[in-house]
Write a structure and sequence with these properties.
- The chain has 469 residues and is of the alpha+beta class.
- The chain is built from 16 helices and 17 strands.
- The strands form 3 sheets. Strands 1, 4, 6, 7, 8, 11, 12, 13, 14, 15 and 16 form an 11-stranded mixed β-sheet that branches.
- Helix 11 runs antiparallel to helix 12.
């Protein structure tokens, strides 16, 4: 869709909620989703309350009008009174706070030295208290994209909601295992003017989050997009997750807005085909009021400086470094496929500076083995290489032997044939099969001696014999 030609002046911003991989935000319960039968249930009805400005939010009024009963399922060993709203919250989880600061710094944000923890009215039943605790951590950041900088307006730290199990017109059943898991909420500025820029920004933010201690998998990240044009007020689309159809979703939403007879701000839900459906009225500021059970949150400059020294590298930065070390695209992809694979690569690189060798040992050469070698076993192989007990060309064979439970000392005893014997066999092969390329002869001689030769020396002999011809 040509937005400039249509003179629509698209303005778009992203809102991302990402679960952190720590204990819950205001209690010590584990952030663990359970599949076993819950131990108990409680029932509640929630009521609308006014925000700090004395007004009841429109979205809150809408939910209250539904007059639903809410059922909450919990566990004796992983659900506490705080999640039941029967006990005041504990101090904010320090590990979650530090991860939120780390993410903020990676987005070039300014950290608030003092913040008021707030309550956000939520009466759809997803919080037993009828509100969600949230606190602003940082503001005024940016990330770089190929379209230019995209502003980061705020980063907040807040509680995740309870997990919906079943829902009908009169009753909603929630499970309390998810309630209270720490979330970072990232709000970009509404400065993106094309669907392509929105998609690139979403992917960049995802890269930053994955560099930190966040949960992975379905349901751990929720992404919304705000869209407005010169002819339509802001619409928030929930569940804007799938990169493959992000541009399509925006295009279809703009088409819908153009055909709308009564343009209005609202919240809509993203559908798998790229279309959207009405969810609820657009919420406003009237649902926020201060948390009275907790003191102000203070973040010291010393803490911020400490975290700055521990910032992780982004995946693209790591890939660029590996490329400069001479790794192929395939090896880079394999090495960076998981944090464990990358950690193993970095650890073994301290024993040997041959990046290609280390990458192959930790990825490609592990695949065909009977069982994966441990980092300790790979370290011992490299130590044998450094001591010149084996050669680089022997490593794959040694790995294969160890994977078959052959004792290490026996595995590194590589029987070698003499250079004279290699040369004699090479001359014989070249005489029998003249005109082949050097690599072809190399394949034949390696098949003949099956790892019992020095590959580098064998190629030198092949080149010498061919030149003599």
């Amino acid at each position: 869709m040509d937005y400039q030609k249509l003179k629509l002046k698209l303005k778009s911003g992203l809102e991302i909620h990402q679960q952190l991989d720590t204990n819950k935000l205001f209690c010590n319960c584990p952030s663990l989703l359970r599949k076993d039968e819950p131990h108990f249930t409680i029932k509640r009805r929630l009521h609308a309350v006014a925000g700090e400005e004395g007004e009841i939010d429109e979205a809150v009024k809408h939910e209250a009008s539904l007059d639903k009963e809410f059922v909450y399922q919990g566990y004796n060993d992983t659900t506490c009174l705080i999640e039941l709203d029967e006990e005041p919250p504990k101090q904010i989880n320090q590990q979650a706070l530090e991860e939120a600061i780390k993410i903020a710094l990676l987005m070039n944000c300014e950290i608030y030295p003092v913040s008021q923890i707030m309550r956000k009215t939520v009466i759809d039943g997803s919080n037993t208290s009828g509100f969600q605790r949230t606190v602003l951590i940082a503001h005024d950041g940016f990330i770089e994209t190929s379209f230019g900088k995209v502003g980061i307006e705020t980063l907040a730290l807040e509680e995740d909601a309870a997990r919906i199990i079943e829902k009908n017109k009169s009753t909603s059943i929630y499970r309390l295992d998810r309630l209270g898991i720490p979330l970072v909420e990232i709000m970009t500025s509404p400065s993106m003017s094309t669907p392509e820029q929105v998609k690139e920004t979403a992917l960049k933010l995802g890269e930053i989050l994955r560099a930190c201690k966040v949960k992975r998998g379905i349901g751990t990240i929720r992404q919304d997009v705000n869209i407005s044009t010169s002819k339509h007020p802001r619409v928030e689309i929930k569940g804007f997750q799938e990169p493959r159809i992000m541009t399509k979703t925006i295009d279809l939403e703009i088409e819908r807005q153009q055909s709308s007879k009564a343009p209005k701000a609202e919240v809509r839900n993203a559908l798998p085909d790229g279309k959207t459906e009405f969810l609820r009225p657009m919420p406003g500021r009237a649902r926020m009021y201060p948390e009275t059970d907790l003191p102000l949150l203070r973040i010291s400059r010393d803490l911020v400086n400490k975290i700055k020294k521990q910032l992780p590298k982004l995946k693209t930065e790591i890939q660029d470094e590996l490329k400069r070390k001479g790794l192929s695209t395939e090896l880079i992809s394999l090495v960076t496929s998981s944090p464990d694979a990358l950690d193993e690569f970095h650890t073994l690189s301290k024993l040997n500076k041959d990046a290609n060798l280390i990458a192959k040992m930790t990825t490609l050469w592990q695949k065909p083995l009977k069982k994966k070698l441990t980092e300790a076993e790979l370290e011992k192989i490299l130590e044998s290489l450094n001591k010149k007990e084996i050669e680089k060309s022997d490593i794959q064979q040694v790995m294969t032997s160890i994977s078959k439970d052959i004792p290490f000392q026996e595995a590194v005893k590589i029987e070698k044939v003499s250079h004279d014997e290699i040369e004699e066999e090479i001359r014989k092969i070249i005489k029998e099969k003249p005109g082949l390329r050097p690599n072809a002869y190399m394949g034949l001689i390696m098949a003949r001696f099956k790892g019992k030769l020095d590959a580098k020396k064998a190629m030198e002999i092949i080149d010498k014999v061919i030149e003599e011809k």
